[in-house]
Amino acid sequence: MPFATKTISAAMPVYDAIVIGSGYGGGVAACRLARMGFQVAVLEQGRHWRPGEFPTTAKARRQATRLTGRAPKLGDPTGLYYLSVGKGLTVFGASGLGGGSLINAGIALRPDMARLRKAGWPEAVIEDGLFQRGIGLAEEMLDVAPVPGPERFPKYAGMCRTAEASGRSALLPSMTISHVPGVNHSGVKQNACEHCGDCWSGCNAGAKNTIGVTYVADAVSNGASVFCESRVQSIAKTARGWEVVVEDLSAPGASVRLEAPIVVLAAGTLGTNELLLKAQQRGLRLSSRLGQNFSANGDDLVVAGNLDVPVNAVATGFPSQRPAGGRPVGPHSMAMIDLGDEDGPVWVHDGTMLTMMAALAPLKELLQLKLGTAFQLLWQGVYGDRLSRAQLLYVVSHDDASGRLVLKNDSVVVEWPGYSAAPERLRAEQKVKALIEAMGGEFNANPFAMTAFGGNRIIAHPLGGCGMGESVDAGVVAPDGRVFDPEKGPLGVHEGLYVCDGAAIPTAVGVSPLLTITALAERAMILASRQLGRTLDTDMQPLLPLRRAAM
């Protein structure tokens, strides 16, 4: 990395702009505000994880995981992974420099604009062209591209066979993974993908185009300061702008107060909603819709078992744990199948099992009293024949965004007990079941929805809670990203307060949302530059030309 992060004790008391969070929205905001010439502080609760430092063993991954939500608060608050346990849903996410980009599959899909229009997104977002421009900027900055030569990976061939059995085709989405070593747009040298399948536990090869090595690195090159292990406790309006109280997680019990005329909330969907709900409790006037219209983006996962041909979809990690003679796994997710119809989108993505997840397979079979299968799995191990014939599949579809986010014991909690029974989710599950059975595979529903594993469905694409709307009666955030202020009328806003992450998305997107979140943040910053009278240098072009090979 071209920069060193600091602890919050080294921060100045006043900045031009404070960005809370360093994921897709926060990274964009930090980069573009710094390019406007503002003195920017980026606050990140998690650590600065570098390639080679991500946990690889089951013990290390447990130690890097914390529980929040309805569950008792357990684990390291700077840990890489978190599970926010709600009613009906559990959200899986990440803390660390780069936010969710550290642990996702990196699938970068453009949203269907016609669908967003039909879903009631603000007209300006759809019509003014800046969102589409943001998509292009995000694709360039994140250097998205499909995996080259997918035929060499058994799980891609498995996706092709699955698709063909139902008269479909396996598609290759663009992804935020480097397949050629070189220097990226922000001047950071990156390595090529090692095809280990461990994308979603942290890339130790240094091949993921995370927000840390793209947008945040660019922000630092333009003067921004990054403070890790800095948990924001509250925001409040002041006569001069905004006050942010920050807990120093590197020195328990210590906290500092910062001020800035501009504050960007980008702490992830749950974190941003939590800060706004707390501010509302303390008297900040906000839309009555705060906490409503939470969406899981139609998330689910299933397992196709007993496949005729091995697909080798258990991650091997880097350095590789692959058995001698074993085939490379490939990226965590590289192919998808479109099962959408007139009722809405349904995308099926391939995935890999971490060894920790694969090790749970015998337990699941034991709980279902399938003793023979359980003993076979135990005997063969995670790289044995039986698990080599199992394919984890992610489902991304849509939902009615009827979940709620509430504060309980000072923590945000998801309440959506009816999600599992929602007709949109059941429709998607049945389509995927038919797809698997058409090729002779065995359909296994989401294993984490079993009572023994807590009963909640685990989702990774939380959206909404303070979604955009045309007015304060329709949303919490204005179409330009600023937060509505009810005291100023239906279109009035809190000057200097922005939401630039998934929390501002008002409905399910129908595709993996990273590109949508990034593009909306780009749009908000283009508009902010006009509102603030600042020039965005080089008209939003990146610092360097397209990726070049390292010398």
Q: How would you describe the overall organization of this protein?
A:
- The chain has 551 residues and is an alpha+beta fold.
- It is built from 14 helices and 26 strands.
- It has helices spanning 24-35, 58-63, 113-118, 123-127, 130-141, 154-165, 212-221, 268-281, 355-358, 361-367, 371-380, 385-388, 423-438, 514-531; strands at residues 17-20, 40-43, 65-69, 81-85, 89-94, 170-171, 182-183, 189-190, 225-227, 230-238, 241-248, 254-260, 262-265, 292-295, 300-305, 336-338, 347-351, 391-396, 404-408, 411-415, 442-444, 457-459, 463-465, 482-484, 493-499, 548-549.
- The strands form seven sheets. The chain has a six-stranded mixed β-sheet with strand order 9-2-1-13-25-24. It has a six-stranded antiparallel β-sheet with strand order 6-16-17-18-15-21.
- A hairpin with a 3-residue loop joins strand 4 and strand 5 (89-94).
- The longest helix has 18 residues, at 514-531.
- 55% of the residues are buried.
- Mean pLDDT is 90; it is low at 538-551.
Number of helices: 14
Which strand-content bin applies to the residues? Answer: 15-25%
Largest sheet: 6 strands, mixed
Alpha-beta classification: alpha+beta
Summarize the structure.
This protein has helices at 24-35, 58-63, 113-118, 123-127, 130-141, 154-165, 212-221, 268-281, 355-358, 361-367, 371-380, 385-388, 423-438, 514-531, and strands at residues 17-20, 40-43, 65-69, 81-85, 89-94, 170-171, 182-183, 189-190, 225-227, 230-238, 241-248, 254-260, 262-265, 292-295, 300-305, 336-338, 347-351, 391-396, 404-408, 411-415, 442-444, 457-459, 463-465, 482-484, 493-499, 548-549. The protein is α+β, with helices and mostly antiparallel strands and 551 residues long.
